[in-house]
Design a protein that fits this description.
The complex is a heterodimer of chains A (about 325) and B (about 375). With about 325 residues, chain A is of the alpha/beta class. Chain A contains 11 helices and 14 strands. Chain A folds into 2 domains: about 210 residues, Rossmann fold (3-Layer(aba) Sandwich); about 90 residues, Alpha-Beta Plaits. Classes of the chains: A alpha/beta (about 325), B alpha/beta (about 375).
């Protein structure tokens, strides 16, 4: 069984610079044993850089970083043996068969022949790759390639698994299948660190960190994030509005003085507004403007709401600070 | 766990690389067919160049014997008389102008001397700027005059004709055979640099390199694991090229084949090191290809492969000392053409070995630093 070292991953003021560009700015967070931790953020925000630094690929990182109690600056070789990594590119040798790819990855992780013999059937069963054992990796479809990539990443029984945008570019069925696999692994005690820019994937994570412009803005469970004062300011409420012609309604709502934020969400409009203005006032205003079929309900902020609010806060703060260019 | 930290990862990388080479038909094709294709192309080109050499004749004797001699030259198919002139200056000018590569001057007393049984000679002026032409012209001319002399001896007329040659513009001449041993080096270099740098850049493009860096393997293990299979492939390729050289192009190997193979090891090492350095710089396969080609230019022009090093300005000679191909071509020619042995060539071997180790060191340093 995996010995419990809590937290499995921890960083304090982790900073990575490339020349003058600060790719990761004083990032501090912790990940607990068996947890699925999601790092969410737009492209170029520093997600991949954090993974690379934690795995020992970036040697000039400053600040503290520990994985399984080992220092990322000093013990990267030891860390490498105990972690697994899967990138969005799948990273397979297309000329080699499924079996040979697994053997190769087992080999570079110093596994002995008898160890491989025991472990391989487990991985094959977990990933469902048994029927494709002798097929070349290049001949597999996207979803199966990804399963193989995952299989290669876990063949050496890592205690921590890093996944960098694992579902980029694969179909929804394969995506769900992958998440089912991740839950299985997590249930076995493997700690999973996953980056993504899909909101729905982030919601599957036990805890989420949101990184924006190299800064980690918020960390916590989705419920914790909902109650953040920046997300749900005192005296504010979130409402969902169903209305005829929602896009016209949106531009009308945007101009109302007591509405702080508004966005279209499918057929409905989500807004953040002053709590003192009851929904009846809003309904009245909309009806006066000629909108019909109105239904207004209070809602909890979705993850997207949370991140949009947090992002807006940052952007506003920066412009208040004198319009620093983003 | 009994793991060798210095070379950890070597064996799985080695096995994987072998499988990849065997599975990828283009690599094998590239490695085994293209060199032969090139050799045929260049070998045949070298051969056809020396037919029908444009020739200018200055016949002072203007006798039946001199006409007969000129006839022999023409019939040899090596010489194509494009002009007949009446002065030394004209003769020289035609060659300077490039209208002819060879000038044949028959002395005024040619027939008289022969009739008196005195030895005489024909002067052959040769444009040395194309060394293969030079040597062919000299050889054939000597053969023709020798034949003529032999005939006279058989006929019991004592006069002997001798071909004296004067090479213009490039006094050191080389035989056409000199090209093929040099070609062995150039082809080997081109193949190996391209193949090993491609194999690594392909890993970068596909993202597998990232996984290799993330795995607990040492840079040296990865490097050597990559180099060994290509080293072995290079060795097979060398043997294959030598076989074709020996039996298809009929270039005899005067020295020891074993020695040749042993001296090839440090060269292959150097070349693979260069390929690895390229692959740490190149981001894409086409970039790697360009870089590989750019290492080839000095290897062709400044290694003595085409242009003789003795006639180069000092600065180019100095540059040539830093090109591994220079030493390898010299070694190949030494063994194949002159039958040189270890005592003649050990300096070359030592220099190549040092270069190989330096390349290996540089490559492993760059491997450590390179960001994925």
């Amino acid at each position: 069984m995996i010995n419990t070292i809590d937290p499995v991953i921890s960083t304090k003021d982790l900073t990575i610079k490339f020349g003058k560009f600060i790719a990761v700015n004083k990032v501090s967070f912790q990940v607990k044993t068996g947890e699925i931790f999601g790092l969410l953020g737009p492209n170029g925000s520093g997600k991949t850089t954090i993974i690379k630094a934690l795995c020992g690929l970036i040697t000039h990182a400053t600040g503290e970083g520990k994985i399984l109690g080992l220092d990322i600056h000093k013990d990267s070789f030891k860390i490498k043996k105990r972690i697994g990594y899967m990138s969005q590119k799948f990273s397979l040798y297309e000329e080699l068969t499924v079996n040979e790819n697994l053997d190769f990855y087992a080999g570079i992780y110093h596994m002995k022949k008898d160890q491989i013999k025991l472990r391989k059937p487990e991985v094959l069963e977990l990933t469902g790759l048994t029927p494709y054992l002798e097929r070349r990796a290049g001949a597999l479809s996207g979803g199966w390639k990804q399963r193989l990539a995952l299989g290669c990443a876990i063949i050496h029984e890592p205690e921590v698994l890093f996944l960098d945008e694992p579902t980029a570019g694969i179909d929804p069925v394969a995506r769900r299948a992958l998440w089912d696999l991740l839950f299985k692994l997590s249930a076995n005690g493997i700690t999973i660190f996953v980056t993504t820019h899909y909101m729905d994937e982030a919601e599957r994570c036990r805890r989420v960190g949101y990184i924006y412009l190299s800064n980690l803005i918020a960390v916590g469970t989705v419920d914790e994030l909902r109650t953040l004062p920046e997300v749900s300011p005192v005296g504010s409420t979130r409402l969902e509005i169903l209305s005829s012609s929602p896009s016209e309604a949106l531009s009308f709502i945007k101009d109302l003085p007591y509405v702080w934020e508004s966005t279209i969400f499918g057929q409905s409009i989500h807004i953040l507004c002053e709590k003192t203005q009851s929904s009846s006032k809003l309904k009245e205003d909309l009806e006066t403007a000629g909108f019909t079929n109105l239904v207004i309900n209070p809602i909890r902020p979705s993850l997207e709401d949370i991140f949009v609010t947090l992002t807006n806060n940052i952007t506003n703060n920066i412009s208040l600070l004198g319009g620093t260019k983003l | 766990m009994s793991e060798n930290y210095l070379f950890s990862g070597l064996i799985p990388v080695f096995k994987k690389e072998i499988l990849q080479i065997l599975r990828d038909p283009t690599t094998l094709f590239f490695a085994l067919f293209i060199p032969i294709f090139e050799m045929v192309l260049l070998g045949v080109a070298v051969d056809t160049n020396v037919r029908q050499i444009k020739t200018v004749v200055y016949d002072l004797a203007k006798t039946q014997e001199s006409h007969l001699l000129i006839e022999r030259y023409i019939n040899s198919d090596d010489f194509n008389v494009v002009a007949r002139v009446n002065s030394d200056k004209e003769l020289y000018d035609k060659i300077v102008a490039g209208e002819a590569k060879v000038g044949i001057k028959i002395p005024e007393d040619y027939s008289r001397a022969l009739q008196k049984g005195i030895n005489t000679s024909v002067l052959l002026l040769v444009d040395g700027s194309e060394s293969n032409v030079t040597s062919e012209a000299v050889n054939v001319s000597s053969a023709i005059t020798l034949q003529e002399s032999l005939k006279r001896i058989v006929a019991k007329s004592p006069g002997v004709v001798e071909s004296r040659h004067k090479v213009l513009f490039n006094p050191s001449t080389r035989s056409a055979n000199f090209f093929i041993p040099g070609l062995v080096a150039v082809v080997l270099q081109m193949m190996l640099i391209a193949l090993i740098s491609f194999s690594l850049v392909k890993e970068r493009e596909r993202g597998t390199l990232e996984n290799l860096y993330l795995a607990p393997i040492s840079p040296l293990g990865l490097m050597v694991g990559k180099m060994l299979p290509y080293g072995i492939l290079g060795f097979f390729e060398l043997c294959w090229i030598l076989l074709v050289m020996r039996y298809a192009f009929d270039v005899p190997i005067h020295g020891s084949v074993i020695l040749l193979l042993i001296f090839s090891i440090p060269f292959i090492l150097t070349i693979l090191g260069m390929g690895l350095i390229i692959s740490t710089k190149a981001r894409t396969q086409s970039e790697a290809m360009q870089m590989a080609m750019s290492t080839l230019l000095p290897a062709i022009f400044l290694s003595g492969y085409i242009f003789s090093l003795d006639n180069m300005p000092k600065i180019f000679w100095l540059i040539s000392r830093f090109i591994p191909t220079t030493y390898y071509i010299d070694t190949l020619r030494g063994i194949i053409l002159r039958g040189a042995g270890f005592n003649h060539l050990w300096v070359n071997g030592a220099v190549m070995l040092v270069m190989g180790l330096v390349m290996l060191l540089l490559a492993s340093l760059r491997f450590r630093q390179s960001n994925v």
